[in-house]
Every structure is written in structure tokens, then in C-alpha cells.
Prior knowledge:
By secondary structure, this protein is α+β, with helices and mostly antiparallel strands.
Amino acid sequence: MEQLVQVDQAFIQPQEHRPKTVVSEADGIPLIDLSPLSSDTVSTAVPETLVAQVEAACRDWGFFQVINHGVSPELLRKAEAAQRDFFALPEEEKRKVRQDEQNALGYYESELTKNVRDWKEVFDIIAHERDGIDVVGLVLRNKWPQVPLGFRETFEEYAKSVEKLAFRLLELIALSLDLPPKKFNMFFEEANSLLRLNHYPPCPNPDLVLGVGRHKDPGALTVLYQDSTGGLDVKRRSDGEWFRVKPIPDAFIVNVGDVFQVWSNDKYESAEHRVSVNSEKDRFSIPFFLQPASRSKVQPLEELIDDKNPARYNELNYGEFISARKDGNLKKLEVENIQITHFSRA
């Protein structure tokens, strides 16, 4: 018997992309303990075993989880509480800080992924506000709500703490590619890194819709905190099957994005992932997207190409790339929005 459809047609996924009723947990996704890092910055004295773990995780999965990462549990509790309080506000209150065509920061409830509406609402915060507009026309001023009290202070502190972690991870990944630890730091001067608050309400038809449809992250790294509900699914490269990332208390989930796929010349592939919803519980998550400056030219690194392994991508301007990607998030397009594969030389 067909299940009675109770959601708007705009949310319904094509048949081939609808989630299965049961998704196995991905036991193979590595869990990496960062306690060997004794200082705020990474050096060449990092244990080889830790670098090897990062290298294997980026190569085989594109995803891993980290514990003992330096972000305090108290800050995680505070951020999660502030997030829940904001999304519990009446719709008219949230819409006071709604995104618009001039400023893609703040609250939004109608985002699309691959031309299908996501079952979620979000709040976007840029990590470093600047006056004026970016080189590709992006407004870089946050829209802070009046309530809940302390919301701005909480997420300014959270963004600063998680950004510090992101740069430590960036340096570990550089070492895993046999590069100097600060090799990538120059790309993040005037970076447009973004903090996003996600809320996935219960859904009457979780077998027909997705919280976020299948996609790959366009930036360099994503550092995600998720609550205990779970719902993040990763596509395993070996067989194309979807696996659920098991929530681990106070852990962060890390994945490499399209930028690292290009920098590494396909050694580290940006992994496809999605978010499934359920009919009973809200789910909350907070991803931090480490993104290069808009003016950055992204191409395979010279150190990682040679005659036997030639460059597989043409150069791209990151600001133009991310701006084109955002267009497809806000309105339905006749074709799929731009992907990193469009810059492939294959």
C-alpha cells in the first residue's frame, strides 16, 4: 500500500534519491583523538601516527570525527541551547532577520538542494564581518536577532573557537600531503568562512523527503557539531551505499570539500552526503564551513602534480564559484547548479 503523502510536492525527492527506511551506521568512519596536539598550532613534531590517521581518513572516506579537540563542552551546551531557543521563536520573529537578495545572511526556510526543497530552516553567520561588500557582491554583515538574549555573544565565541580548531585540522591535512603545516593558511586571509545553524523538524513522510539533499561541500573543510538525534548520511565510495554517521557526544565531524579535492588533485575527494529526517524528533546541527577568500585562485598544487600525475582541474576563482552555487540554493534552476566537476580536465 502506498503511504499517504502529507507534505508539499516541492519537498519530495525523485524516486531514485529517496532515503531507505533503515540506514546502517558507518562504523568505518575514523574517530581521531587530537589530544597529542599539545599547543594551539600544529608543528612538524606531530606524531606520525596522527598524521597517518588523518591521511587515511581523508583518502578513504573524506570524513572523520575528532575528540579531545579543544572546544569546551560548556560552549557546545551553550550554543545548542541558544540555537534551540532561536528556532523555537514564532515565525514572524524569525523573519525579522530573514535573508534576502541583498544579504544572504540570517534566517532562511526555503533552501533548495539540486532543485528540491530541503526539510529544514537555517540561520547563517559569517565568521568575520567586514564593511561594504565582497569582491563578488556578497554582503558581509550579520543579521543578529534581538532575541534570544546572548545569541550574538554565544555564536561569536563559538565561531572563534571552532575556527581555531579548523586551522589546526588544516595544518594536519597539509602534513598528511607532505607539505609544510601552514601551506594553506595564505588562502584564508580575508576568508568568508560561514557558521550555519540547522533545524530539521519532524516530518510526516521521512521516506519521501530529505533534510538536505545529496551534495558535496564547496569549501575547504566543514567542521560539524550534531546533536544526539543523528541523520547525517555519507555515501561510501567503494559501493555507493549510504551510511549513517553515529553521533558521539561532544565530537566534531570533519569533511574535506571541493577546494581540497582540487588542491590535492583528487587524492582527497569531497564526499557526497545528505541529511535524513524522522517523524518523531527535531534534529539540530551546527556546521562551520572553512572557506578561502573570494579572490583565491584554486587549482592543483604544484607540489602534488608531475608528469605521471598531471593537473586534473582548471583554475577557478573561489568567489565566483561559491556565488554561482548559492544561486541554486535560493531558486529552482533549469539545470543543476555549478559543480567542481565542471572544472575537470578529464
